[in-house]
Fold this protein.
Amino acid sequence: MQLASIATRLRLPARMVLYREDSPADWIFIVAEGVMKAFRDLPSGKRRVMAFLFPHDIFGLAESSRYVNATQSVTPVTLYRLELSTLTAMLRRDSELEFQFLCKVTHELRESLRQTLMVGRRDAVGRLAMFLRMLEQKPRPRGAASVIDMPMSRSDIAHYLGLSLEAVSRASRTLERTGIVAFEGLRKARVLNRTKFEKLAAAL
Amino acid sequence: MQLASIATRLRLPARMVLYREDSPADWIFIVAEGVMKAFRDLPSGKRRVMAFLFPHDIFGLAESSRYVNATQSVTPVTLYRLELSTLTAMLRRDSELEFQFLCKVTHELRESLRQTLMVGRRDAVGRLAMFLRMLEQKPRPRGAASVIDMPMSRSDIAHYLGLSLEAVSRASRTLERTGIVAFEGLRKARVLNRTKFEKLAAAL
DNA sequence: CGTCATTTTGAGGTATTTCAACGAAGGTGG
DNA sequence: CCACCTTCGTTGAAATACCTCAAAATGACG
């Protein structure tokens, strides 16, 4: 996007909190490189990861000038940061840009709907399969085509899927035991049986 | 919205299917009166209600020129219908209108996130409380201030919350038995114990 | 007022959550 | 470069909550 030209470039190491929930929302961010997560800590102490943010994703959704989520880097990241007021001014001036932006938000909406579907499933294995398929569809880093990269921790995945860490662990084990997916370490996965995999991932 | 001026007014009786999933997405709709539901039928035969659409809500989200959901009227409804091509043309011309539209979609995104949070909860009673609070916050029809109107069936609620019909029924019973909510028939509810209600509805 | 659909209620099955403890991984400092 | 420490992940067993199936009760509608 041409927004980059008026944005500030920003680098963050892994595991760094960018902003907290309910803090004043002055900026909008775009991921240039790396992965972030947006999450909320619930009263019960549980944590829900609302989204993983990949390159090209825009984030900084606010309500009444406060961020609705906290965000934290998962890997080292490069971000573009721009003032919200600057952005809205630009959008009003540049209709074409605004339209692009609208498309972007619409896309996010579709993603969110997909996540609702995923979280609504009852079975842990299916949810994990769906998650892996989502990762698979992300633009993969150069080279490794058939390998799914999982930059986030098992615990993050659990919080994203609305499962316990243990359930994710067991679901991984099941996928491996049934020969559908092979895990190499904690950060890589490979689909071995595409047919069964798709059948699982298909929204139950 | 001023979109109404270029839109076709449309009336539907209750329980009428407006369009099906994957059918060509030529139109965008706005609810003027009544309630619609957007849903998907899953391979397993289960149905998921993705959203209830109230007055002022826009719907007709598409992907590759196909609707992503089917929609059906819950009550008799009045809709505004406009061609997608007409809309995009107008948006490009009228920057102010486009901005309004962007805000609208952003709002939908927040709602979707809220639903994700709700569906992700583990307890049926909490989910139902959260749902009732959502209904409560909708602009209520004239008069009845403290009464929550539930135009949709228990079965629709179940499909929206990702629960079985029985679970919704039992959750209602529990809310009633504990004196938190009183149901009058199947279509009206009243919060009796606001404190406990909010505590339940608070995202666990 | 009768019929059909929807909702309620009960009992049993199953998947996930919890709790606890062990094992592995990653990061830091000597 | 290795040892140590802390965090994260795995595994097992028991508890919980929802789902499913079945039947009765209630509500909707002609």
